[in-house]
Amino acid sequence: MRMWRGVLSRGKTALIFLLFLSPPVVAGEMDAAALFREHCAECHGADRLGGAGPALLPQNLHRLRKKRAARVIANGRASTQMPAFGGKLSKEQIAALVKYIYTPPPHVPEWGRKQIAASRRIIARTDPGLKAPLFDADPLNLFVVVESGDHHVSILDGDTFKRLARFKSHFALHGGPKFSPDGRFVFFVSRDGWVTKFDLYTLEIVAEVRAGINARNIAMSEDGETLAVANYLPHNMVLLSTRDLSVKKIIPAVSMDGVSSRVSAVYQARPRRSFVAVLKDAPEFWEISTGANAKEAGKRPFALRRVRLPEPLDDFFFDQSYRHMLGSARGMKGAIVLDVDSGETIAHVPLSGLPHLGSGITWTWKGRPVMATPNLARGRISVIAMDDWSIVKTIRTDGPGFFLRSHENTPYAWADVFFGPHRDEMHIIDKRTLEIVRTLNPAPGKTVAHVEFDRYGKHALVSVWEKDGAVIVFDAKTFKEIKRIPMSKPVGKYNVFNKITFSAGTSH
Ligand code: DHE
Predict the structure, then answer these.
(1) 411: CA distance to ligand 1 center in Å?
(2) Fewer CB in 10 Å around end: N or C, the chain?
(3) Do 196 and 187 contact (CB within 8 A), yes or no?
(4) What's 366-426 look like in SS3?
(5) The pTM of the whole model exceeds 0.85
(6) Is the minimum distance from the CB of 492 to ligand 1 under 6 angstroms?
(7) Spatial contact of 128 and 200, defined as CB atoms under 8 Å apart
(8) What's the half-sphere exposure (Cβ side, CA atoms, 13 Å) at 261?
(9) Do 308 and 283 contact (CB within 8 A), yes or no?
(10) Nearest by Cα to 310 from 330, 339, 287, 282
């Protein structure tokens, strides 16, 4: 702004000259850039890539409505360092800022090896000789709880349900954290692409790195040596060393047809000893061999196999053997089944609404392997036989659900009713009869969601998904409440044992 004032003070001739030379600029936009530099850049970065505060690019903001963004600027955000600007900025200035941050920058910001390396921080040295935790609890029965209300993570003892640690995370962690095969380390990713390594034996953060500008999720290789980060921005997959989070490889997400694409998500296909991923903007499935698999096959590490799909997918589920993948996309009317070995699409499952395949779980029903998936648009859970891909039952629920969970040692599956007037309910389904046998309502009027069992399947932990929420511990047999632990919007919880053993009842 100061620069413009200087130019203008040189007189009318200069102004006319300038108007001819400059591209047309809407006055409000120019003001907004200056306002951003003055009030926001210090925390959110001059390039809007984030700093102490989150990135403010349209890709990173797509989950935040513009009206809400205006309210955050005016009133600040509780439990964060975001102050209220309502007293300093007019309504018009706030509106101009909102417009500015939802407008893509003129150039796609660069985030390559150099930027990733510069962001990497080693925070604590780890002692590889440490064979047990420095506290008295079963390290394999710990729960990692992501609290998105104030962006913290809690570590719970899965036997006593005492909180062992609580630490600040990066803004907006998303997806399941991933564990090293021995369960000692856990890795998180934030929507802004920050990856954090945490030591569950010493209860301290070990290292962090920003692997992307807008990330989807992470996956751990079967040998525990590599962490894959699926990014929306830039369009790539970043492979990190789990030891120190340094970059091993960056794979640009460009399809066989040359289309640059976001990566929908990446998973560890443990039995195949590979990473499997799907592109969001091109009909393509990827398999990347890792560790011993690559060596045995005489391939270069991280060799990429591509399979063409009938259409791009954004939600998918793998059976326990990772031989088959069910995939769907918005508007697809069901899911396709891919034979991962042959690369052939072998079936179509006609599911209505919006199945949430990513939350699927499997078990054996009447001797047949089945998977169940909730539905984000309709009050139903579909149970699908995985031997012939027929729908064996559609269970009517009190509303659309987000998550579904079970455990090998319980005959029940727990399903939330995430959307609608019954969002305070939790259905319990008998995996033998496929009937709802009980509906819990532990926090009337509040959203109750996401379940995780302890390693023995004896207790089910349920989130009260509110800012002043809680994790409720239930006896998995009697459905009686045992304990309520206050938490700040505990979006997800993850049991170390269930995760590292790839329990059929939980997400992988
Ligand atoms: Fe998620 C997992 C995609 C919105 C909470 N979500 C995942 C995974 C994917 C995904 C691909 C699996 C990653 C993994 O665990 O490795 N999520 C998407 C979307 O495409 C969607 C619909 C839109 C988006 O904005 O990205 C979406 N997700 C949400 C939310 O709005 C939720 C409810 C709140 C939040 O924190 O953002 C949400 N997603 C979760 C959680 C998991 C998750 C808690 C891990 C579930 C688990 O138990 O493993």
Answers:
(1) 26
(2) N
(3) yes
(4) CCEEEEEECECCCCEEEEEECCCCCEEEEEECCCCCCCEECCCCCCEEEEECCCCCCCCCE
(5) yes
(6) yes
(7) no
(8) 24
(9) yes
(10) 282
Tokens 């591509």 — which residue? 306
The residue written with tokens 């998936």 in the block is 373
Tokens representing 204 are 């301290």
Structure tokens at 375: 């539905």
pLDDT in tens, 299-357: 678 999 999 999 999 899 999 899 999 999 888 889 999 999 999 999 999 998 899 99
Nearest to 504 by CA among 322, 374, 349, 339: 322
Query: Which ligand 1 atom is the nearest neighbour of the CA of 376?
Result: 22
Q: Which two tokens stand for residue 198?
A: 């945490």
What is the sign of the dihedral through the CA atoms of 5, 10, 16 and 20?
A: negative
CA of 63 to the centre of ligand 1 (A): 12
Residue 435: burial class (beta carbons within 10 Å; 0-12, 13-18, 19+): exposed
CB 168 within 8 A of CB 151: yes
With a CB cutoff of 8 Å and minimum separation 6, the contacts of 251 are 236, 237, 238, 239, 288, 302, 304
Does the bond joining 234 to the residue before it have cis omega, within 30 degrees of 0? yes
What does the pLDDT look like over 80-89, one tens digit per residue? 788 999 988 9
Q: Does ligand 1 have an atom closer than 6 angstroms to the CB of 177? A: no
What does the DSSP 8-state code read for residue 55?
P
What is the CA(419)–ligand 1 centre distance, in A?
Answer: 15
pLDDT over 90 at 436, yes or no? yes
**Separation in Å, CA 285 to CA 47, 303, 330:** 33, 14, 17
CA of 457 to the centre of ligand 1 (A): 24
265 close to ligand 1 (CB < 6 Angstrom) = yes
d(CA 508, CA 500): 9
Distance CA 151, CA 323 (A): 36
Residue 448 to residues 229, 252, 480, 483, Cα–Cα distance (Å): 29, 39, 16, 15
Distance, CA of 251 to CA of 303 (rounded, Å): 10
Residue 386 has a CB neighbour count (10 Å cut-off) of: 18
Q: Quickly name the fold that domain 2-101 has.
A: Cytochrome Bc1 Complex; Chain D, domain 2 (1.10.760)
Q: Which atom of ligand 1 is nearest the CA belonging to 178?
A: 16
Tokens 């903001």 found at: 61
Give the start-to-end residue ranges of the domains of the chain: 2-101
Q: What is the Å distance from ligand 1's center to 324 Cα? A: 22
Q: Is 367 left (phi over 0), alpha (psi -120 to 50) or beta?
A: left
Q: Is the CB of 217 inside a 6 Å radius of any atom of ligand 1?
A: yes
